[in-house]
Design a protein that fits this description.
Elements: E1 2-8, H1 12-28, E2 32-38, H2 41-50, E3 55-59, H3 68-78, E4 83-88, H4 94-99, E5 104-107, H5 112-132, E6 137-141, E7 146-150, E8 154-160, E9 163-168, E10 173-174, H6 180-186, E11 192-196, E12 199-202, E13 206-209, E14 213-216, E15 222-224, H7 230-240
Parallel strand pairs: 1-2, 1-3, 3-4, 4-5
Antiparallel strand pairs: 6-7, 8-9, 8-12, 9-10, 11-12, 13-14, 14-15
Length: 241
């Protein structure tokens, strides 16, 4: 399986060093990595529009009209799943990185052992997001017929009375008779998060998280975070990013 990576740095020497590290990693761990390079923010955005990348490495200081964080904001608006890794000589911007659901950041000069561990984790997440998740689905009986629903079509679940409502990306809703606990037992771990006694969400569909609620993509509805679930949600999000 091919994993496409985009690397951006306005310093061509640093860009070559970065891509050489990535290429050596691919050879060492037998991963087929396709690497594209960009030296400006504009070139990065053009390449991102033209190709489907799984990971992007962005230098913060591009010496351009826009910086790496602004480029990341644009990419994130159009791509929910891409792993964003900042490469920087400035380690004091982690809060902004987490706002953008950045996967990680690498401080220059690159420490090879840390870089390898980070890439191993990143590649595993990419495989989960793009190659495993696409094959996963759940089959439910709503009392009329069986429905096979891909995980990627589910935004969130809500328990109302004796039924669990499935809110799907096509705006349709299914409501089989079951409990959230029973539903949770049918799902593969690592894709859905319990955030409230009555709600469970697809964490790949999160747009942003507020103090006490979650905004899901393509929906106006805000999902509440129950007090007893707040800590587990925070820990889960840190693992995801």
């Amino acid at each position: 399986m091919d994993i496409r990576i985009l690397a951006c740095d306005n310093n061509r020497y640093q860009l070559d060093r970065l891509t050489n590290h990535i290429r050596e990693f691919g050879i060492k761990y037998n991963n087929n990595l396709i690497i594209d390079k960009a030296v400006t923010g504009e070139e990065t955005l053009v390449l991102h529009r033209q190709n489907r990348y799984h990971m992007v490495f962005l230098d913060i200081d591009l010496g351009d009209k826009v910086n790496g964080v602004e480029i990341a904001e644009t990419i994130r608006k159009n791509d929910d799943n891409i792993l964003i890794i900042f490469v920087t000589a400035y380690p004091d911007f982690t809060s902004k990185a987490y706002e953008l659901f950045a996967f990680n950041y690498v401080v220059k000069p690159i420490e090879k052992q840390f870089f390898e561990k980070m890439l191993i984790r990143g590649i595993n997440i990419v495989k989960s997001r793009y190659f495993i998740r696409d094959k996963l689905s759940i089959t439910i009986d709503d009392g009329y017929e069986n429905h096979k629903i891909p995980y990627d079509d589910i935004i969130y679940f809500e328990k109302i009375g004796k039924r669990v409502y499935f809110y799907l990306t096509d705006r349709s809703v299914l409501n089989p008779v079951m409990t959230l606990n029973h539903l949770d037992s049918l799902l593969e771990p690592g894709f859905f998060l319990r955030c409230h006694k009555s709600f469970m969400i697809n964490h790949y569909k999160i747009q942003y998280i507020d103090t006490h609620q979650i905004k899901m993509k393509n929906l106006d509805t805000m999902i509440p975070i129950g007090r007893k679930y707040k800590e587990s949600i925070d820990k889960a999000i840190l693992k995801i990013i």
